Amino acid sequence: MATTRFMTLPRHIMEGEKQHPEATGELSAILLQLGLAAKVISLEVNKAGLVDILGFTGGDNIHGEKVKKLDLYAHEILVKAMDHGGHFCVMASEEEEDIIHLPPHQKIGKYVLLFDPLDGSSNIDANISIGTIFSIYKRISKGNGPGTLADCLQPGYKQIAAGYIVYGSSTILVYSAGHGVYGFTLDPAFGEFLLSHDDIKIPKCGRIYSINEGNYFSWHKGLKDYIKYLQANNFEGKPYQARYVGSMVADIHRTLLYGGIFMYPGDKRNPKGKLRLMYECNPMAFIIEEAGGRATDGKRRILEIQPENLHERTPIFIGSLEDVLLVEKFMREAREAY
Ligand code: AHG
Ligand code: MN
Ligand code: MN
Distance from the CA of 331 to the center of ligand 3, in angstroms? Predict the structure, then answer.
């Protein structure tokens, strides 16, 4: 598919559909609707410094964390944008403890949507990149009534599409429906997403590692050894570089484009790490694998983890194939040595 200035998201989706005669067009409609929600959230994020929207709501979310207003705004926009197309039977969000049912009068469809409405929300006040992450499955429950928790708790390899939007120096939407990874940059003048990154492939290895090193003393010995190894060695004749935005969507987007590795490990204090399997790790793992990379919890492929609850956490090592294999090797060797 040629990268032309006028390859808009709708046109790209329609052309992709023509190449897949089995497609019903429903997934395309969903992706377009998500694109619209992304534009609305992007506008709000861009004017966050101008209006009185910053600061805490005063409430905690179900994880006991302070919620900023923009998280809730993004959550509400996504629910409103996605609940009336007749495509979904159930949804789930980081910002809501239980599954989200469709309004009673709406047509119920065969897809399931999970999302992190705003990732990296602690960065909002500092104008640092934040994002939205989404994951789409087909329902597994029978019939065409409301979807169930079991529809949401499917392993990541069953995703039929996933993606994210980064609200950064520009707004970019990256998605995959299992036939390559594509990135679209929002042209603020047209208000349209234009294809900017065609058929993205992640480099086999990279120079950048990304991890919250403040947790160093709680890490697994193998992980400490791996980071020390990187610091003592060069990549193509130059020292390795550490980069950590603190918004996983932005850290992993950079990793996808430049190569390298992003890690949020389990440690002594938090054996399962911090990041959520269903709407953070699975969709990002789907994209990275689709681009030729690797995503594991140190031992298992992220996409093969059988989820047990909606908000469960998992350690994650994600990025270039060779870099993820190497950290796994360090951790395996340290385990075997003790
Ligand atoms: P969210 O804003 O959706 O709660 O996610 C924040 C996450 C993730 O984006 C980021 O990688 C991680 O928190 C950073 O955590 P640390 O501050 O512990 O490094
Ligand atoms: Mn998040
Ligand atoms: Mn969030």
Answer: 29
